TrEMBL record:
Gene3D superfamilies reported for this sequence: P1 Nuclease (1.10.575.10)
The protein's name in its UniProt record: Phospholipase
InterPro entries for this protein: PLipase_C/P1_nuclease_dom_sf
Superkingdom of origin organism: Bacteria
Keywords: Signal
Origin species: Leptospira kobayashii
SUPFAM superfamilies xrefs: Phospholipase C/P1 nuclease
Span of the signal peptide: 1-20
The organism's taxonomic lineage, starting at the top: Bacteria, Pseudomonadati, Spirochaetota, Spirochaetia, Leptospirales
């Protein structure tokens, strides 16, 4: 029975899109622009990662060690890295060589390109791929990024923290978490210690990042017992790593990297506010999941196929609609739109709610999980199969997206108030 249930979970989890909110940059730009409206922070000077690492290498080594100890203590499936991966800057002569060593110590994609650039979220869709795009991602399928505008920065250039964070918050989707498992056909995946990929299709670049961007912490104990692989997720580890690096960068006067690392951490927090990244199958009980699997075993496959299609369609609809809607709001300054209001107006909640890193699981993810059923039901009633175009402002889908993004706005503000220390 356990193996049969595992099959249905595996089929569905392999089929899910691996993005959450697909326009992190636009969302964050609106949220922080209004959060900082009365007192925007001063511009910062762009700094290469190589220079930052070269100046602060010994302190960074301690930060990375602390993060690995935290990850191993919190997550049984996240052991400390192999000794060969530990950051040993004293043995590195060229500062440029510090960067791949740093990435390997973080256990991210070691060929990530930490270029100096900003994403211009206020620019209209580009007809020609930005020349800078090849300098910021190794993605084979660049998807929507080919229509985004990216602008290169020079070392020492003045840039606003708003632009730094809004740009950085998209960056983890560019390749930071690609091919990190032993079955991803990468040499580094074989030594990073994360084991085989628990879910998502290990053959594909986007899918290989899924366990780092989802967190199914609040599924039933029965579900997590039968489908134990759902426990093997890592967003908390990433949030802790990048937050601690940001704190160190702020403390040592490297404000640009304080904001950029903060943007990286925010990405995973925002991912967990998306209901389908915190709940595997909203409104589908354990009995129904088993029922469709048993029907499939006797040759009746349509119920299982319909269930998979149903979940994938909901997930994809929200991502596609939100991406295009936020871009439309920014380009045409639709500040009367309910989604703009949801992002720009601070919810009437305590922004000092973050007490420790348990907040990620106990508040952010739990809220998304409990919201998932209502949101899924509301979307079902709309009978919209897939994204085709944006709807008029009064359309119910805009209200659904606004309610969900209000949570994203709140948790982004909580993080900003807690950790942005220029």
């Amino acid at each position: 029975m356990k193996s049969k249930t595992l099959i249905i979970f595996t089929v569905i989890i392999f089929s899910l899109p691996c993005f959450a909110w697909s326009n992190h940059a636009g969302l964050t730009y609106i949220i922080l622009k209004n959060y900082w409206k009365k007192s925007p922070p001063a511009n910062v000077k762009a700094e290469s990662l190589a220079n930052f690492l070269n100046k602060e290498k010994e302190g960074i080594k301690a930060v990375l060690t602390d993060a690995d100890e935290y990850g191993a203590k919190l997550l049984p499936h996240c052991p400390k890295p192999d000794i060969s991966l530990v950051f040993h800057p004293e043995g590195i002569k060229k500062k440029e060589d510090l960067v791949p060593a740093f990435f390997r110590a973080l256990r991210v994609f070691p060929h990530h390109k930490p270029s100096l650039y900003i994403q211009s979220v206020l620019s209209p869709p580009q007809n020609i791929q930005s020349k800078e795009l090849v300098n910021i991602t190794t993605l084979k399928d660049k998807g929507r990024l080919v229509s985004e505008k990216f602008v290169a920065l020079t070392e020492g250039a003045n840039v606003s923290p708003l632009d730094v964070v809004a740009t950085a918050v998209d960056e983890p989707d560019y390749d930071l978490d690609f091919y990190l498992f032993t079955d991803n056909d990468s040499e580094f995946g074989k030594i990073y210690g994360f084991g085989t990929q628990p879910f998502g299709d290990p053959r594909f670049e986007y899918s290989s990042q899924a366990p780092f961007h989802m967190g199914f912490f609040h599924e039933s104990s029965l579900t997590l017992t039968v489908a134990g692989f759902l426990k093997r997720t890592y967003p908390e580890y990433r949030i802790y790593q990048f937050t601690k690096l940001a704190e160190y960068a702020f403390k040592t006067g490297h404000t640009y990297w304080g904001y950029r690392f903060s943007g990286w951490a925010l990405h995973y927090i925002q991912d967990l506010t998306q209901p389908y990244h915190s709940s595997v199958l909203p409104r589908v009980g354990f009995g129904k999941r088993m029922g469709v699997q048993l029907l499939s075993i006797i040759g009746i496959d349509s119920p299982k196929a319909n269930m998979v299609e149903y979940v994938v369609n909901r997930h994809s609809l929200i991502e596609e609609y939100q991406y295009n809607l936020v871009r439309e709001i920014l380009l045409n300054k639709k500040e009367d739109h309910p989604v703009y209001t949801a992002l720009s107006v601070a919810p009437e909640k305590n922004l000092d709610a973050w007490k420790d890193f348990n907040y990620i699981r106990d508040v952010v993810s739990k809220e998304a999980y409990t919201t998932a059923e209502d949101a899924d039901l509301e979307i079902e009633h709309l009978n919209i199969i897939k994204y085709e175009s944006l709807y008029p402002i009064e359309h119910p889908l805009n209200g659904i997206i606004a309610k969900l993004l209000s949570n994203t706005s709140y948790h982004t503000r909580v993080y900003a108030k807690t950790f942005f220390r220029p």
